[in-house]
Amino acid sequence: MVDQFQPGKVLFPLLAIMALMLVAMQVPPLLIMTGVLIPVPLIFLYVQLGRRPGVILLALAFASLFLLMGPKQAVLFFTEYAVLAGVMAETIRFRLPFDKCILLSTLVSAALSIVLLFFILIDRDSTFIEFFQEQIKGYFKQSIEAFKAIGDNPEDLKVMQEFAANASDLLAKSYPSLIVIGTFITAVINYYATRFLWGRIYSLDLFHPARFSRWMIPEQTVWVFIGSGVLSFLVDNIIGAIAMNLLLIALIAYFFQGLAILIYFLESRNVPVFFWILIFFVIVFQPLLIGAGIGLGVFDTWMDLRKIRFNREQEFD
Fold it and tell me: Which of 105, 172, 173, 108 lies closest to 139, judged by CA?
């Protein structure tokens, strides 16, 4: 049950988030880091006020962007943020487990984004690959400009430019999975940011008690991982492109399973928060550790490091 609306408790955190967004719009590098949090106030108010006021809120946000920034930005906001916010708010209100909240939000938002791209390409002469190459080059150009603004090392910028030139074709083939992965990461961040904010203002009774540290993906996913890995390297056609997209999604899924295992052991040993922050900071900025996290998630399929499957089998004996 949703707690009674208390404007005084809600006003300050929402104003703080809005202020952060306004500041970020003036500082491009900050916008890259904070833009992903845009759905948080929408999800929070939707859950707090209910379905009808929540839908009206999303519609007003869309209309405001349409009038102020034009139809393109309004449609992008709708597919990337408004739909995600609406679906996630509804799943939270139904008290679904966190993985279902995140998965449903990701699938609906990513599917709409891909459909939107399809309709955009109908009126263009370019192919899907050519269009995606243009999008990737534009993204790298924006990123390079942002890094220039914060005074990044010229040698690093040169390496990034060379990488953009060499990897644009490969990234273009995997663009659909990049949309899904980006939407998934956005959904994860917004779910836990909303959960944290709600818990500080009210309590966590509204949210399903399932813990991320005990989360695992279905065992059959390993065959998707193996099969897509083989096909993506052996087949150079549409099947190979589909396999590459499935492989990237499977890698992200196993990385998060690896994180769940790490968090399980950090929780079980009561590791201080300072070391949590340090560990995750190192993981984010060290690609080898990201690979180790993926490997940990894959091997857990056979090793059952947390003994979750063993305990579940005992429950049904």
Answer: 172
